[in-house]
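ERR on first pass: missing label on line 2. Operator R.T. fixed the label and resubmitted. Corrected input:
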Amino acid sequence: MNAENFAQPHLLKQPIYVTGKPIAYTAREFGLDPAQIDKLASNENPLGPSPKGIAAAAKALAEVNLYPDGGCYDLIGHIGEFRKVNRDQVVVGNGSNELLDLIAKVFLGPGTEAIMGSHGFAVYKLATLVQNATPVEIPMPAPDFNLSLAAVREAITEKTRVIFIANPNNPTGTELSAKELLDFARSIPENVVLVLDEAYTEFIEEDAPDFLPLIEEGLPIICCRTFSKIYGLAGLRCGYAITRPDIASLIHRVREPFNVNSLAQAAAQAALGDQEYVAHVRKANAEGLKQLSEGFKSLGLPYIPSRANFIVVLGVKEPTKAFEFLQKKGTIVRPQRAMGDALRVTVGTKEQNERFLRNLSDYLKSL
Ligand SMILES: Cc1ncc(COP(=O)(O)O)c(C=O)c1O
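pass 2 clean. output:
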């Protein structure tokens, strides 16, 4: 009998997350040299991992015969010190993606709702659906693709348990002001958990809203961060959440005992202590964004201003065709069909950005 007949019925409609295309796939498909392919599709760090992170992971490799520390004691201690919070407020996850799933596991189930933007990070919807809960998507209309917090507030019902908001948002790269977000956080019911996804917050550090005082006051807020982006450790899978101790304790109950591997714990701890590298990546990213924005302007293409490590360029006719054209030339980007004639590109190195702009120009000429 086909397993679909005895699986959980709601899972039969569960969409599968489509990841950015790996370099090896594109190389195989088009007979290209992997070294000549620029993967600008998943908002990874083009400068590589934090060197201190690599060294720590290499050292930890000798002890992978042992299980990792299931409580992430040292890493949580470092995060607590760095962010000035108590250790009972911190949960570490196998990427912040896992934390989003765990949050959904704790708060969502049949008959409950989670609110998110229509162009929010895809995992919010997937994590909600897997719990057999209902995603409520707030339109983020063109041309600016902003999320209206007033509309989010209006969508709150007695069934709402979670609100997912990323700032800056992926894939749009749009940002909400700190004041707007902090006022919003204070305005929602006390039985609705506000998840602030801060995956790209380090890129806007000085302007990022600080929710930690609100958590201290007792608001049900969860701030998620990741080591995948500015720290360059996406392949190791490590992220963390800061929240109220009662919420942290619930998330701990539903996580796997050894959810974060020992290489990730060691690398993340060392990378956290490598703020020089973080500053270096932030600066290089700002320069790359400027380079790409100017490139789009000279190609006559509109774009959504971004301070994250990616940017959406608009007016690229037939984005799927553009994606295919670009990958044959060695640049992997993400078509954003839901946003119209749009492509999302990760900020690469100066040379990668140059190659991408050249290839994009060739695509426009080919139309
Ligand atoms: C907004 C947002 N949140 C979370 C994640 C997940 O990151 P990770 O699981 O690597 O920590 C991503 C990854 O692209 C993202 O864009």
